[in-house]
Amino acid sequence: MYKQLDSYIQNLVEEGFDPPAGRKKKLKQLAEYVIQQQKEGETARLTFICTHNSRRSHLCQIWAATAAYYFGLSQVETYSGGTEATAFNPNAVRAVERAGFRVESPGGENPQYRIYFAEDEPPLVCFSKTFDDPYNPKEEFAAIMTCTDADQRCPTVPGASVRISIPYVDPKEADGTPQESRVYDERCLQIATEMFYLMSQV
To answer: To which H or E segment does residue 124 belong?
Structure first.
């Protein structure tokens, strides 16, 4: 992994990535899905869903993929989507860069960012799309609801083998304020901590 990202992760490891008990229960439920898929010789496909697929769902997709790589879990694939599409928010992109990921953007209204966490791994392609976009799996996947709005709008997710609600507070609330970078970094760290806890349970 890149040096800055590796340092970020080592800090997580030293802290013990220890989420609150209530959230651990949901994360362990998702870990059980991954374990069961592995027992059956299948790939665990995780689709993280929020309203606009612009912040939280992308952060979850990126950190879940990174944690799976860190723990040597090759049969895990991560995706993200929304109930509607907008764009991967630049503030969230900058938080990812500050954590140590390398980001390439082709530009445009809804850029297909390429997110790198290691030289020897292909990038994650991150752009805003609906959860049922052709880019995402259509069946046999875990649907993880990362915001309460999407959770309420989608009581069922077609094709999903399991649906789990793990909501995060939207960092959007800090947009345009002096706290903007701090709030995005805090949400990025929270998600990183929980995705590393998740993969450590597999």
So the answer is: strand 124-126
Q: How far lies 20's CA from each of 15, 66, 162, in Å? A: 13, 21, 22
Q: Return the exposure string of 99-127: e unless at least 16 CB atoms fall within 10 Å of the residue's CB, then b.
A: bbbbbeeeeeeebbbbbbbbeeeeebebb
Among residues 75, 62, 77, 69, the alpha carbon closest in space to that of 35 is found at: 75
What's the burial of 170, exposed, middle or buried (CB within 10 Å: 0-12/13-18/19+)?
buried
**140-168 confidence digits (pLDDT tens):** 999 999 998 877 777 789 999 999 999 99
Q: pLDDT (tens digit, 9 = 90+) per residue, 38-78?
A: 999 999 999 999 999 999 999 999 999 999 999 999 999 99
**Cβ contacts of 182 within 8 Å, gap of 6 or more:** 174
- Residue whose C-alpha is closest to residue 78's, from 159, 199, 183, 167: 199
Edge-to-edge strand ranges of the sheet holding 113-116? 102-104, 113-116, 124-126
